Amino acid sequence: MQNRIATPVGITLDRFIKKKQNDFAFATGELSQLLRDIALAGKIIHREVNRAGLLNIGGAYGTENIQGEEQQKLDVIANIRFIRALRNGGEVCAIVSEEDDEILDMKNPDGRYIVAMDPLDGSSNIDVNVSIGTIFSIFRRTSPVGGPVSEEDVLQKGSEQVAAGYLLYGSSTMMVYTTGRGVNGFTYDPSLGEFFLSHSNIRIPEDGKIYSINEGGYEGFEPHVVKYIENCKKQRFTARYIGSLVADFHRNLLKGGIYIYPSTDKTPNGKLRLNYECNALAMICEQAGGMATDGKMRILDIQPESLHQRVPFYVGSTCMVEEVMKGLS
Ligand code: AHG
Ligand code: MN
Ligand code: MN
Ligand code: MN
C-alpha cells in the first residue's frame, strides 16, 4: 500500500472566525470582519514578499521613518496595503503604524476599533530571503463612536487589547492570533487562497533551552542579562537569533524558549516598540501560558506615554523569563 501522506483539509480561517464569533453572545461580527480584513492584507503581502526579488521591490525606499530607520520598499508597500485593507473594511477608525509618525485617521467615524501595527517586521532580512512578519494589536476605541479619535484611544494598556496576532512569511505563511480565548495558528495554502487551521490551541512549553538575543550588544548588557546568558552557555542551551522578532518568537512559542531585547548602554529602553510589537506578542504569549515583561513589570500593564515608545522586552517560557528576572531582585 503506497504510503500516501494525506493532506487533511482543516477548517478555514473564515469558518473558524465565524464559529468563534458565535461563542460570543453579543458579537456583532465587526471584529470578525476586521480579522478577515487583516488576513486579506496578509495574503497580498505574502504575494509581494514572494515576488520581491522579481519585481525590484527589494532594497531601500530612500526615506527614513520616525525611528530613524531606513525604510525598505516592502516596509512602505506593506504599510500601504494594510492601511488600504483596514480603511476599506470600515471597522477601523484609526491606525498606529511603525512607519507613520502620527495617528492615521481612517475617516471611518463609525469604526469601533483601533489597530496598532508593525506592517513589516524584520526589514533587515527582506533582501536576504529570511523570514519576516507583520504584527498587529486590536483595541476598542474608548472615545464616542462617530466623534474624533482621541490620543487615549491609541495609548491604551496592552491588557485592553481585544485581539492580537502576527503573520509570519516563512517557509509557509501563517497567521497566528488570539481574541483572549487561547491562541490558534493558520497556514496559508496559496493554491486555494485560504488560511487553514494548522495549530489549534497553541501552548508554549513552561521551560525551554533556546535563547534569542543579539549578543553583539554583550558589552552593553546589564549585569543580570550577562549572568543569564553565561548561565545559558553553562547549560549548553541553543542560541537562535534570526533578527526577525516574529520568526524568533514563533519558534520559541512552539518549542519553548526566551527572546530578549534588553536595555543596553546604546539603547537604554531597548529597541522594540510597546504599541505595535511588544503588546501583541505579550498577549499571545500569556494566552499560550507564557510570560512577557520589560524586566520589571508585565508588558500588558505598562501605560503607554507615546506612540513609538520603546521598552526592554523579555518574552517566552515562564520559567526562563522568571529566571532572568531573578537576577534583578
Ligand atoms: P523592524 O524590522 O520592524 O524594525 O523590527 C526589527 C526588530 C525585530 O524584528 C528584530 O528582532 C530586531 O529588530 C533586530 O534588531 P537588532 O538587529 O538590533 O538585533
Ligand atoms: Mn523598522
Ligand atoms: Mn518590528
Ligand atoms: Mn517594521
Automatic annotation (TrEMBL):
Binding site for Mg(2+) 2: 118, 121, 277
Domain Fructose-1-6-bisphosphatase class 1 C-terminal residue range list: 204-326
Gene3D superfamilies for the chain: 3.40.190.80, Fructose-1,6-Bisphosphatase, subunit A, domain 1
Domain Fructose-1-6-bisphosphatase class I N-terminal positions: 11-199
Keywords annotated in UniProt: Carbohydrate metabolism, Cytoplasm, Hydrolase, Magnesium, Metal-binding
Residues annotated as binding Mg(2+) 1: 98, 118, 120
Enzyme kind, highest EC tier: hydrolase
Family the entry assigns: Belongs to the FBPase class 1 family.
Protein name (record): Fructose-1,6-bisphosphatase class 1
Gene encoding the protein: fbp
